[in-house]
Write a structure and sequence with these properties.
The chain is an alpha+beta fold and 116 residues long. Strands 1-2-3-4-5 form a 5-stranded mixed β-sheet. The chain is globular, with a radius of gyration of 14 Å. Belongs to the UPF0102 family. This is UPF0102 protein EYF70_29425.
Length: 116
């Protein structure tokens, strides 16, 4: 199936985010986890923590930038997807939600942005 230009740019943003997180010592657990209730771009391990990462890319910081584009509805879908993912664990690990926001050529990593 052919990918759109927007999908290709999104994939490049996820690749950049993954590379950044790997360089900072996180380990990839799963990429593009999808379930009926939502999706998670990256699931990483940071020591004992499981980290659910939303990657957002915008051309510029106009209109609030990449991080500001994560709506309350999107946050709810991320939480649902995380809950579904965690069903595979007998004992729940400590978890957090991070955002990698890419505005133009600037990548920012925001840790622990949502209350679980």
């Amino acid at each position: 199936m052919a990918r759109t230009d927007l999908q290709r740019k999104g994939q490049l943003g996820e690749d950049a985010a993954l590379d950044h997180l790997l360089r900072h010592g996180l380990a990839l657990v799963e990429r593009n986890f999808r379930c009926k209730g939502g999706e998670l771009d990256l699931i990483m391990r940071d020591g004992a923590h499981l980290v659910f990462v939303e990657v957002r890319r915008r051309r510029s910081r106009a209109f609030g930038g990449a991080a500001a584009s994560i709506t309350p509805a999107k946050q709810r879908r991320m939480k649902i997807a995380a809950q579904v993912f965690l069903l595979r664990y007998r004992q729940l690990p400590p978890c957090r939600f991070d955002v990698v926001a890419i505005d133009g050529d600037t990548l920012g990593w925001l840790k622990n942005v949502l209350d679980a």
